[in-house]
Amino acid sequence: MKIRTNILTAFFVVFASMGGACLLALHGIGQLRQDAKVALDADDLVLSTVQVQQFLTDVSATHQTDGFNDAQHWADEFAKTTRDLQTLLPGDPVLATLQPTFDPFYSVGKKMANAYLSQGRAAGNFLMKGTPQQPGFDGLSDQISAKVDLVRNAAVKRLRGQQTSETDIVLLVVLLAAIFSAGIAFWFADSIVRPLRNLKQAAEGIIKSVEAMNKMTREVSSAADEQRKGGQHIAESVEGINRSAKEAAASVAQISHATGGLQSQARQLVEAVSLFKLSDGAEGSV
User: Fold this and answer.
1) How many domains does the chain have?
2) What CA–CA distances, in Å, run from 139 to 95, 127, 134?
3) What's the pLDDT score for residue 107?
4) Given this model, what pLDDT does residue 73 score?
5) Is residue 250 part of a domain?
6) Segment (H or E) for 97
7) Which residue of 18, 110, 193, 277 is surrounded by the most CB atoms within 10 Å?
8) How much is the mean pLDDT over the chain?
């Protein structure tokens, strides 16, 4: 159970660290995407400004009024892009001045084109060049372009700084991941491998004990065999003694029988001798 807990803890810490790194990376990526979009939208503002200027200039030069519709289309695109940028960067002071600077530029441009159409070149040139006190179409174009450049340059600067920051963060995360991985490896070896090694040593001790017990069992079994063989020898000896005793008993019986016969013969001999003695007495008396 302890090993399982250690493994789960190690994986949880690793995944939590990876999750934090991913969240940090996602936040950085989101900021990069926003700054990139701001820079692209600023390019769209530049394009819209140039297109408005180009179509109104074409109307002034060619007297073809279709260019007014095209200029209006790009003026609407400028307004839409400006609103998108204000959503991305709410409260940005430069963005707040874009539309108020564009509107006079577009208004003077349309007046310039109409002056070329209805009043001639001189009237149109006057509105194009303007005066030191009242900028003309070209001067207003420079103003709106300068403001758009400010927005774009700020976005590009943030984008580059964010890239550098993200690179530093990635390097830091990699370094911390390496250090953390080394620590996890050491902790894993200390908390998991060492108990497993101890378990292996305990198992080896149990195996040695079992082997010693088996050896003892074999020795006891061998001793039992020797004892059994000794018992067999004793039984055989006892049987031999019994056999000898029986043979001795038979010999004793035979000796007793022979002794009885000898005793009978001795009595007969005594009796014969007695008779012989009586016969000698009788002869002496005669």
Assistant:
1) 1
2) 19, 10, 9
3) 95
4) 96
5) no
6) helix 93-118
7) 110
8) 78
Find, among 28, 41, 33, 35, the residue nearest to 156 by Cα: 35
The SS3 assignment for 138 reads: helix
Question: Does residue 282 sit within a domain?
Answer: no
User: Is the predicted pLDDT of residue 284 greater than 50, yes or no?
Assistant: no
Report the greatest alpha carbon distance in the chain.
230
The pair of structure tokens assigned to 254 is 């035979």
> What does the pLDDT look like over 92-102, one tens digit per residue?
999 999 999 99
- Which of 207, 195, 86 lies closest to 151, judged by CA? 86
Q: What is the CATH number of the domain that holds 110?
A: 1.20.120.1730
Alpha helices in the chain (DSSP H): 2-62, 66-88, 93-118, 121-129, 137-188, 194-285
Measured between alpha carbons, how far is 22 from 103 in angstroms, rounded to an integer?
44
CB atoms within 10 A of CB 66: 11
How confident is the model over 113-128, as pLDDT tens digits? 999 999 999 999 999 9
Amino acid identity at 30: G
pLDDT for position 261: 73
Domain that holds residue 48: 2-199
Q: Is residue 23 part of a domain?
A: yes
Cα separation of 31 and 28, whole Å?
Answer: 5
Alpha-carbon span 254 to 250, nearest angstrom = 6
Cα–Cα distance, 147 to 210 (Å, whole number): 90
> How large a percentage of the chain has pLDDT more than 70?
67
